Amino acid sequence: MINSFPRHVSIIMDGNGRWAKQHGLPRLGGHRAGVENIRRVAEVFAEYKLKYLTLFAFSTENWGRPQREVKGLLQILEERIDQEVEFLHDKNIRVCHLGRLDRLSRKLQQKIRGAIELTTNNSRMTLSIAFDYGGRGEILDAVRRLLTDKVSPGDIDETLFKEYLYLPGIPDPDLIIRTGGEIRLSNFLLWQAAYSELYFTEVLWPDFGRTEIEKAVAAYSQRQRRFGEI
Ligand code: IPE
Ligand code: IPE
Ligand code: MG
Question: pLDDT, tens digit, for every residue of 70-80?
Answer without folding.
Answer: 999 999 999 99
